[in-house]
């Protein structure tokens, strides 16, 4: 399966990465090369094999449903590119 | 007096306790080496005041007769993938430039609580994606090693923990943290003639480490000796409720149980790791390693890991898939860079921020991951890869019915020149051919130096153990270390 320029642009859009036409064109052979190489996995017989979910057997832990932290609003906002009135600020999303 | 920067972690710990020198003297000596080694570009941020602060606290505790932590008086380097409170943490990306965590990663916090001091934040491949340290936004790390041919080509320190490996080999720090997703501790250790261990997945908490591929990421130590790795790993390991995959197990006393006597142990030699065309010097080093382990009392048997050739393609589906998901958090809203073109809406801001904040290799992996997870392709790529991953793990389980550990090369070649492999991402990925399988299976694996090749560059061996059996991995590595007698060090040119 090989991917074309349109597909690369679609992947970029899904990835939320803006690319110029020139960048997208350069990525077509690069991504095809890598995807062509990983496609060899298709030849492995995986009949009856369950997909791996955990490399080391481990129990999922549950803890009591109680508040264990919080009241750190200013710390959470400390690295925000833009914070106003105790909130993250973003460009207007509703016209 | 001996140069304090030539001492191992164990030497520093013991010498400090014995009153041979003060912690401040040690910290000052390493700070001076760090300051004089800008040419290596091993550090993104230097923190001499942190090293001195921890040293003064250690000196004070010693003077007051207080109980000293296991790393009291020992300064170390911290890979810039670990969040450090109040100290910029970038993952070597532009995206996180200026990001100053308000919290400390579990592993780094354990090291500071044990008395260690921080010399600085070490450079790495951007978001730990790379095998040569050429993807850092803050410039390439240069290996202190040079070929004997007099050409002075700048060589790769390996990646992604290339700042760590370069700094240790150059005596800028006696030890450092690394992280290993597909070989990022072991391959740089091999390239620079030092040791490093990736423990069993789940030994070290991932909390506060910038995430790359969560089912593979493991922290581990890097240092010049096997003993030093054991000392650090004991401090770094342990259960952490803040990491859902952390193993709730007691931390063994690895250092106290170090023994290079391998009587009763069987070493497996996986035949698939010796493909046609394997570098002759790497192959010869492997043969020497086999003899060393026999000399230490071990039996040697050939074993088969039939799915080995599928490990790299499996990794290059799973790791980018997880990365595309993990790196979705960099949206220009909560932390890091924001790029907001005039009049842009929220979606445009995301796309512009991520275009400006990520380097080419990071974008490449996010896009591959997005593609293999996208509607219609998920089963063909991701589910298939997780099935093959299960087969790769089963290969190891079956092999370990016949042996206690495996011996393999660490990397398919010695270090290469910067720029040599950068043009072809696929050629770069092949560097991890011997390290990725153990990562996919979550097994402990260690790189230990074996000797120099004809060009005068270090080459090493890898020991892979059963899950949770770091002790056997360390012991076999110690047996190699004792027999290899590796004392070579790079001539100082920086």
Automatic annotation (TrEMBL), chain A:
Q: Does the keyword rRNA-binding apply?
A: no
Write the Enzyme Commission number(s) for this entry: 6.3.5.-
**What is catalysed by this protein?**
L-aspartyl-tRNA(Asn) + L-glutamine + ATP + H2O = L-asparaginyl-tRNA(Asn) + L-glutamate + ADP + phosphate + 2 H(+); L-glutamyl-tRNA(Gln) + L-glutamine + ATP + H2O = L-glutaminyl-tRNA(Gln) + L-glutamate + ADP + phosphate + H(+)
Keywords carried by this UniProt record: ATP-binding, Ligase, Nucleotide-binding, Protein biosynthesis
Any Pfam family: GatC
Q: How does it assemble?
A: Heterotrimer of A, B and C subunits.
This chain's protein is named Aspartyl/glutamyl-tRNA(Asn/Gln) amidotransferase subunit C
Q: Coding gene?
A: gatC
